[in-house]
Amino acid sequence: MANSRTIPNEWKTRTFPDIFYEEPEIAEDAAVGETALMQIKGLLWQRYGGLADVFIAGMVYVAYDKSDGNRRVQPDYFISFDVDAEAIRWRLPNYWLWEAGKAPDFVMEVGSPSTAQNDLGAKRDLYAEMGVKEYWLFDPADGDIYGRPMQGLRLVDGEYQPIDIQIGEDGSLISHSAAA
After folding, report:
1. Considering only CA atoms, which of 123, 126, 119, 170 is closest in space to residue 147?
2. pLDDT digits (tens, 9 = 90+) for 46-67
3. Would you call 45 helix, strand, or coil by DSSP?
4. Separation CA 95–CA 97 (nearest Å)
């Protein structure tokens, strides 16, 4: 159990409330999308890494309820634009929604059989409620997990609408993210 503690950083001291962080069990099929996760991380860092106003994270909890530290969600990857990335890094281990000042702009989940139902239901609904502008789902099993290889959803008036994805002549998936 975590106790009240003071965590110093370079500029200030922060005090956290008594919170017991419950760590979820790791799914047996967690390695299903491991290669895809590494490739996505590389692409995101290649495009946005090092920009002072862009925060990129993978497997970092997004804490969305200031009164309850266990109300958090862990996207596979997310990006927040127009933020102070360095200040957010100093506030880890969580992305504190109220301190960052906004929800992530872009979230991507990589599917596995054990997470698919949650990714397509509860997580999608929570991301919409939080105000995540785009929610992308990548299926490393070519559609066997999510029903199609890639899905993109854009938040419009509080509800996610599908983003058009084309198939290229070489079989590649082609789309555009307005958030990224």
Report:
1. 119
2. 888 888 999 999 889 999 998 8
3. helix
4. 6
CB contact set of 155 (below 8 Å; sequence gap of 6+): 128, 131, 132, 133, 134, 135, 161
Number of domains in the chain: 1
Please state, as a whole number, how many other Cβ atoms lie within 10 Å of the Cβ of residue 138.
22
Q: Where are the alpha helices (DSSP H) in 83-143?
A: 85-90, 97-100, 116-120, 122-130
Residue 135 falls inside a structural domain: yes
Q: What angle do CA 51, 57, 58 make, to 5 degrees?
A: 145
Residue 137's pLDDT is 96
Determine, yes or no, domain membership for 163.
Answer: yes
Enumerate the β-bridge partners of residue 8: 13
CATH number of the structural domain spanning residue 101: 3.90.1570.10
Length of the chain in terms of residues written: 180
Taking alpha carbons only, the member of 152, 141, 133 closest to residue 114 is 141
Q: Is residue 5 part of a domain?
A: no
Q: With respect to residue 120, please indicate whether it lies within any of the assigned structural domains.
A: yes
